[in-house]
Write a structure and sequence with these properties.
mainly alpha, single chain, 246 residues
C-alpha cells in the first residue's frame, strides 16, 4: 500500500502544480498595467526566494561546486522561463502562450523517448494541444514578439526540466528549488528594479506579489521537484501537456 501511494504521489504533485501555477499566472496579469512583466516577475521571484529559504533552510546542507553549477543553470533557466513567459502573456492570450511555450517540454519528450509508444503519447499530446488552442481569440493578428517570447520561454522550460531533474537527484527537492530560486532572482530582480523602481514597494502591489510568488513559484516548483525525482523526463514532459487545460 505504501509503495502504491509513493508511486502516485509524483502524479498528484504535478497535477496540483499545474492548477496553482495557472491560477498565479491569471493573478499576475492584473499587475502588468502597474509594474509590467519585469516588475511582476521580480516580485514573484524575490518573494518565492524568501519563502523557500525560510521553509527549506538550504544553508544546513553541504553543496559541492559541481552541484552548485547544476543549481545555477537550473535557476537561470527558471528565471528566464518566468520572465519571458510574462513578456509573452502581456502581448498574446494566456492559453495561446501556454500552448506555444509547451514546445519546450515537447522537445524534451521527443528527445528522451526511446519506444514507439512514447512517440504515440507525444503525438496525442500535440493533437490535444491543437484542440485546446483558443482559436476564437485569433481574429486579430498575434503579436510577433509575444510569439517569440513564448517560444523562448519554452526553450528555457526545456532547460528547466533537464537541469531540474539533475538538481533534484543530486540534492533534496527543497535545497534544489530554494538555491535555484536564488539564481533566478539574481537574474531577473535587477531588471525589475531598473525598469520599475520604487513603484514595486507600494503595499497592495507587495501583497499581490506575495500571493503570486506562493501560487506561481514557491508551491508549484517545490511540487515539481517531487515529480521530477519520481518520473522520467519524457513522462514528466508529456504530462505537462495538461497545463493548457488548466
Amino acid at each position: 500500500m505504501n509503495s502504491q501511494i509513493k508511486s502516485v504521489w509524483p502524479f498528484l504533485s504535478i497535477l496540483t502544480s499545474m492548477i496553482v501555477i495557472q491560477s498565479g499566472a491569471s493573478l499576475a496579469k492584473t499587475l502588468f498595467p502597474i509594474v509590467g512583466p519585469a516588475g511582476t516577475t521580480s516580485l514573484r521571484l524575490f518573494f518565492s526566494m524568501i519563502i523557500l529559504l525560510v521553509v527549506f533552510r538550504p544553508w544546513r546542507t553541504r553543496v559541492s561546486k559541481s552541484q552548485l553549477k547544476t543549481l545555477a543553470f537550473y535557476g537561470f533557466f527558471l528565471g528566464g522561463m518566468n520572465y519571458l513567459f510574462y513578456l509573452s502573456i502581456a502581448r498574446i492570450p494566456l492559453g495561446i502562450a501556454v500552448a506555444l511555450e509547451f514546445t519546450g517540454p515537447l522537445a524534451v519528450a521527443l528527445l528522451a523517448s526511446k519506444r514507439a509508444l512514447d512517440f504515440l503519447w507525444v503525438l496525442l499530446a500535440v493533437v490535444g494541444l491543437f484542440c485546446l488552442l483558443p482559436l476564437t481569440e485569433l481574429a486579430a493578428p498575434l503579436d510577433l514578439w509575444g510569439i517569440f517570447f513564448a517560444l523562448a520561454a519554452g526553450a528555457c522550460w526545456a532547460g528547466y526540466i533537464l537541469f531540474g531533474q539533475k538538481a533534484s537527484l543530486e540534492n533534496s527537492g527543497g535545497v534544489a528549488v530554494s538555491v535555484g530560486m536564488i539564481f533566478a532572482a539574481l537574474l531577473v530582480v535587477p531588471i525589475g528594479i531598473v525598469q520599475v523602481g520604487t513603484a514595486l514597494l507600494t503595499g497592495p502591489i507587495l501583497l499581490t506579489g506575495l500571493a503570486i510568488a506562493f501560487l506561481s513559484s514557491a508551491l508549484p516548483y517545490s511540487l515539481e521537484m517531487i515529480a521530477l525525482k519520481g518520473l522520467s523526463r519524457s513522462t514528466f514532459s508529456i504530462l505537462m501537456s495538461l497545463e493548457p487545460v488548466f
